Amino acid sequence: MPRLSDRSVPPPSTENSFHPPISQILEQIADAVLLLDAQSHILYLNTRAQQLFPETQTGIHFFSTPLDDELDPVRQKIERAAIEVIQGQAIRETSAYLPQRQQWLDIQIHPSDWGLSIYIKDVSAHQQGLARLRLLEQAIIASNNGVVISDMQHPKQALIYCNPAFEKLTGYAQAEILGRNCRFLQGPETDPATVEELRQCIRERRDGRVILRNYRKDGTPFWNELRISPVRDSEGQVTHYIGVQNDITERKQAENALRESEQREREKAAQLEDTLCQLQRTQAKLIQYEKMVSLGQLVAGVAHEINNPVSFIYSNLNYANSYAQDLLNLVRLYQQHYPTPGAEISAIASEVDLDFINADFPKLLDSMKAGAERIRQIVLSLRNFSRLDEAELKPVNLHEGIESSLTLLQHRLNAQTNRPAIEVIREYSHLPKVQCYPGQLNQVFMNLLNNAIDALEQGVSLRVLHSPESLANTDSVLPPPPTIRIRTEIATKGKNQEYITIRIADNGPGFQEEVKHRLFDPFFTTKPVGQGTGLGLSICYEVVVEQHNGDIRCISAPGLGAEFIIELPLS
Ligand SMILES: Cc1cc2nc3c(=O)[nH]c(=O)nc-3n(C[C@H](O)[C@H](O)[C@H](O)COP(=O)(O)O)c2cc1C
């Protein structure tokens, strides 16, 4: 192996004979500089070199001076490289690491006229930076999130990097995506508004976070939680953007499943509420039904019991009349043939006032007949109303039911001490018989008419509500006195769906919107405690809507009366 001392270079000088300006320059540079002669004696070393090798000084043999344990291997490296330089007469570069000092040195050895120039640069900061970068890269490689970097100075904002997680997530290899814009992940279900949000962020060079539908290479969609973030250079210019992708498809599915199950729970709760409501209605119906059955039985029994004696009276009144006429005729004949009867007969004849009896008796029998007739009418209405024998669906004349109810309520319609008689206006159309449960419908008419009378007891509206349907009819106005108007008609809904409408309107005080909404709720009543069960209208609803597939609603406003509209399908 050639030795450094084999070269012919000037002998070492113990003095630093270099011109001050050059040595000044060498002092100012960041590198440690060592100049060796051909025998490896130190010709010159600047302060940094002195600091690095404190044991050395000019004139000594650089490769044989003892150094500390950490520096010795460095010097050996320099020596090996120096030999190569001398052999090849070319610049040689090497590096060394001092673990205890955590110092990285880059070493350059140049051949020169006087021997060798050695430049040693401390690159620890640079190396540490690199090591840190390598660590960070490792972290990005190990990350479960996709990471991409796009070059913002490239016209397409092309991708220049993607980590393995991105490759795994999307199915694309890095080689396939480099140079492309990341929009290739988008597809038919990608929301344009979300893409616009991203575009806006990039335009304004700011951070962004979106969740959007993306597609893998094999076409399968996934939910991508994407964060993008600008990278700026020392002048604040955005040179790159970093994108971090997170596949949240499972989370989304779980959220959807949760939402669906919440929806199901809500539906169940609504169903439960419905069932509860139905139960309340059924309970109300049962109570009312029980009441009506026993009342009906009572009414039917009483009607039957009254019917027989009234029939005797009614049918015998004609005989009584003719017998009385016969007797009076006989008395008249006696008067003609025996104009002067005995004193006892004359006394009684003047006492009984035979002429008066003669004139009054037929009238008396007539009024008895009218009374009996009225009783018969009431009995008929009672029987018609209770209709216990008609629990089955059957064709019925609805007007008969309404009239029976009116007959039974006649005493309430009559004038009272605090108000005049209630006028009932009938606006009946010609109706066909309707297939229905007559007993139940009679109960509806009875309830509505009773309520109308109750309302009229409280006062009379001066203005009267017109339902939208009756608005055009000026004759539908119900001015005082207290009035109930009952109107029936046939109407058509949708495709030839014929139905019968029964409107029962009163010009009472009417009621507020909130009352209107709760009218048909079981146990809701506006009447004082003890006067209303709150079941009347809920029974009406039950009978019309549930039993007859019809509809019942109410139009009312304070001071404008109220109108109940029942619709019953004809088929
Ligand atoms: C760093 C970075 C990462 C991006 N990652 C995605 C992505 O994973 N999925 C996606 O649909 N769009 C992604 N984009 C958005 C698109 O590349 C593009 O900016 C967006 O579609 C709006 O621009 P355009 O109107 O040119 O398509 C990313 C953008 C950047 C800058």
Q: What does this protein structure show overall?
A:
This protein has 4 domains: 4-127, PAS domain (Beta-Lactamase); 143-247, PAS domain (Beta-Lactamase, 2-Layer Sandwich), CATH 3.30.450.20; 276-385, no CATH class; 391-569, Histidine kinase-like ATPase, C-terminal domain (Heat Shock Protein 90, 2-Layer Sandwich), CATH 3.30.565.10. Strands 2-1-5-4-3 form a 5-stranded antiparallel beta sheet, with helices on both faces. The protein contains 15 helices and 17 strands. It has helices spanning 20-28, 47-52, 71-88, 124-142, 164-170, 174-177, 192-203, 249-337, 343-352, 354-386, 398-408, 410-413, 438-457, 513-518, 536-547; strands at residues 32-37, 42-45, 92-98, 103-112, 115-122, 146-151, 159-162, 208-215, 221-232, 238-247, 394-396, 423-427, 434-436, 483-493, 497-506, 551-556, 562-569. 46% of the residues lie in helices and 21% in strands. α8 (249-337) packs antiparallel against α10 (354-386). With 571 residues, the protein is α+β, with helices and mostly antiparallel strands. Residues 1-12 and 468-476 have low confidence and may be disordered. β4 and β5 form a beta hairpin. The longest helix has 89 residues, at 249-337. Flavin mononucleotide binds next to β6, α7, β8, β9 and β10.
Main beta sheet: strand number and arrangement? 5 strands, antiparallel
CATH superfamily of the largest domain: Histidine kinase-like ATPase, C-terminal domain
Name the assembly state. Answer: single chain
Helix share bin? 40-55%
Tally of separate domains = 4
Distance between the termini: 122 Å
Q: Low-confidence spans: pLDDT under 50, at least 5 residues?
A: 1-12, 468-476
